[in-house]
Amino acid sequence: MMYRTPGTSRIKLRQKTKEFREQTQVKDLRCIPIVRILETLPHVFNGWNYEVVDDWKLPKCHAKTIIDEKTVLLRQSVYDGACLKSGRDRMTIAHEIAHVAIHGQNPLALNRDFDQDRPIRAFEDPEWQAKCWSGELMMPKEYVEGWDVLDIVEICGVSREAAEYQKKKWKEERGKRKGTKSRSTI
Ligand SMILES: [Zn+2]
């Protein structure tokens, strides 16, 4: 089943990650301590918690957010990997926290899509929104936009794939601002 959420934009989500960095007191850090933020989840988001489970209990995904139960479930290997600074595992945790931050506060906003005739546009897709929010959180544009991919990977503690995606999106955004023809910048 597809879900549709109220549309938003990369720029709006970037602003929300800035507010979140201030709220969690990591405003000026280049490497966001995402495991520590996960551990403070109940303090940051009322009623929310997380649970680390054996890998076999989450056979189809590395982590998931259950909105109705206000719970983030994580594979043990993802939690351990993130503690050891695995960029991919750190991004997985950031992605789930994104769902809590964007969709967990207003569950009614996350609607099953019954309007099958109208295609869900990327900016209405909760998965795109979480990917965008987590990228902007972990790689603050104002600091790292001009860096090489490998520096971003090393300093921000993210996966290479995430750093490349982020650079690509910022480049598209610059192209759009200059008025050059560019495909979607979401
Ligand atoms: Zn997701």
Class based on secondary structure composition and strand pairing = mainly alpha
Ligands, deduplicated: zinc ion
Q: What is the residue-mean pLDDT, rounded to a whole number?
A: 88
The major β-sheet equals:
3 strands, mixed
For the record, the count of structural domains works out to: 1
Rounded radius of gyration (Å): 16 Å
**How much strand?**
5-15%
Low-confidence stretches: none
Q: Give the topology string: H per helix, E per strand.
A: EHHHEEEHHEHHHH
Structural shape: globular
For the structure shown, list the relevant keywords.
single chain, 186 residues, mainly alpha, 3-stranded mixed beta sheet, two-stranded antiparallel sheet, 9 helices, 5 strands, 49% helix, 10% strand, binds zinc ion
What would you say this structure looks like, in words?
The protein has helices at residues 10-23, 34-39, 41-44, 76-83, 87-103, 126-138, 141-144, 149-156, 160-177, and strands spanning 3-4, 49-53, 63-66, 71-75, 111-112. It has one domain. The chain contains nine helices and five strands, in the order βαααβββααβαααα. The chain is mainly alpha-helical. The mean pLDDT is 88. The longest helix is centred in the C-terminal third of the chain and has 18 residues, at 160-177. α4 crosses α5 (87-103). The radius of gyration is 16 Å and the shape is globular. Bound molecules: zinc ion. Zinc ion binds next to α5 and α6.
